[in-house]
Amino acid sequence: MRIGVLTGGGDCPGLNAVIRAAVRKGIFHYGDEFVGFIEGWRGVVEDKTMPLTIDSVSGILQLGGTILRTSRTNPRKTEGAIDKCLATIARNKLDALITIGGDDTQGVANALIEKGVPCVGVPKTIDNDLSGTDVCFGFDTAVGIATEAIDRLHSTAEAHNRVIVCEVMGRDAGWIALYSGIAGGADAILVPEKPIDLDAVCAIVKERHARGKYFSIIVVAEGAKLPAKDAQATYGGKVDDFGHARLSGIGNVVADEIEKRTGFETRAVNLGHTQRGGTPSAYDRMLATRYGTAAIDLVHAKKFGRLVVLRGTEITDIPLKDAIAKTRTVGDELLALGAGLQPILK
Ligand code: F6P
Known about the structure:
The longest helix is centred in the middle third of the chain and has 21 residues, at 139-159. The strands form 3 sheets. The chain has a 7-stranded mixed sheet, with helices on both faces. Strands 7-8-6-11 form a 4-stranded parallel sheet, sandwiched between helices. It has a two-stranded antiparallel ribbon with strand order 9-10. The radius of gyration is 22 Å and the shape is elongated. Helix content is 38%, strand content 19%. Strand 12 and strand 13 form a beta hairpin. The protein contains 11 helices and 13 strands. The chain has 2 domains: 2-137 and 280-323, Rossmann fold; 140-277, Phosphofructokinase domain (Rossmann fold), CATH 3.40.50.460. The chain is α/β, with parallel strands linked by helices. Bound molecules: 6-O-phosphono-beta-D-fructofuranose. 6-O-phosphono-beta-D-fructofuranose binds next to loops.
């Protein structure tokens, strides 16, 4: 078969491992040919391609980013762009298209599926909030990076008697904040799922300092909101090509409030894109490899319009349109885990 592959949306560690696995299994096992689309849906709209061969996917397993590069181009938002995608797919004589991306990328795939394009999706988001799958590749790496950063913040915070607020990724769900916050022993974890309770955060900080502690560490997801504002902190009102606001700054807002209310010197650190860059963890390489091989197997089983997912420890597949229906947020049990470790939050 002749199969197209693209990576869309924000990058995350493990994209290259998915590409490599799909291409190797496709060529070695099924005798496939591959066409890589450059920069996500932009490459399909503009018919910009590169060949994907055993040679071109050699040595990429451990590399961050994506050899196909990526973009947030959304053909559904530009007049005539979906027709251009259909023309590119026909011109390249594709029998199938593997779309590696999150809900926006898969939303475009779904629009093409409805027009008869044989697509198979692979779920990707560093935020780990795609519904239908238990884990997205890249999440484990991001949690590892954030946890290491929180470990490092402990010693400098203690040396200076400071509170440090560490802002991590997580637009609509606090998976990275919760996992890295618990693993890193943060004193409070603030997530988009619950409005920020500054009174509770300040009470935790004061109680620790009254107990003779010299520092506190607070982890906040970029999408967490203050109840008074009911709006996420954004950077200059800018939006990306998918139309999402550029989030940034809640860490500074929380830090300023803590310093004002408690009198303790407080600093904010935003980990930003360091969480998405660099080499994937062994767990993510494994998961990405399972996703890539499962995607090519689905193509050959002609199970189109499906998304490969992880349920428990098993790889399976679900209708792709179900995965884009809603965000998978952190449940109450895990949220209670963080709160249960603090004396203030009953
Ligand atoms: O959607 C994943 C994500 O990493 C979010 O956590 C973040 O808000 C956004 O992408 C930032 O992406 P970029 O700066 O690449 O536009």
